[in-house]
């Protein structure tokens, strides 16, 4: 059973930065893609960013493009999300997820159904 554990969440002021980490219980270098989603209170879980393991290509939601950067360190089995210029609207529980096998377009990878395993989430709160 694959386990994903997120960390790095917390309380930050508007305009601040945080870096989230997601550490996997297995080696990630053979996985097809890993992504970040978020869920604000009363809202659906939404796509944030995804990175393909092979080649490192990535995709971002329009709402975070230019502010967030997704990266991974396969040697550490860890996925990262660097979040800069945070806004109050970024407040949510952030989840990492993985699709281990099977190529998909970036459009498909924006859907929750594309992923096999999920972490438990880490809370990010941005105050004004």
Features:
single chain, 128 residues, mainly beta, seven-stranded mixed beta sheet, four-stranded antiparallel beta sheet, globular
Roughly how many Å apart are the termini?
Answer: 40 Å
Order of helices and strands: EEEEEEEEEHEE
| Low-pLDDT windows of residues | none
What is the helix fraction of residues, given as a range? under 10%
Give the overall silhouette.
globular
| Cα radius of gyration in angstroms | 14 Å
Number of strands: 11
Strand coverage percent? over 45%
What's the number of helices?
Answer: 1
Structural class: mainly beta
Largest sheet: 7 strands, mixed
Overall mean pLDDT stands at 96
Could you please describe the fold and organization of this structure?
With 128 residues, the chain is mainly β. Helix content is 3%, strand content 47%. The protein contains one helix and eleven strands. It has one helix spanning 106-109; strands spanning 4-7, 10-13, 18-24, 33-39, 46-52, 58-60, 68-73, 78-83, 92-99, 117-118, 122-127. The strands form two sheets. Strands 2, 4, 5, 6, 9, 10 and 11 form a seven-stranded mixed β-sheet that branches. A four-stranded antiparallel β-sheet has the order 1-3-8-7, with no helix packed on it. Strand 5 (46-52) and strand 6 form a beta hairpin. The longest helix has 4 residues, at 106-109. The N and C termini lie far apart (40 Å). The model has no long low-confidence stretch (mean pLDDT 96).
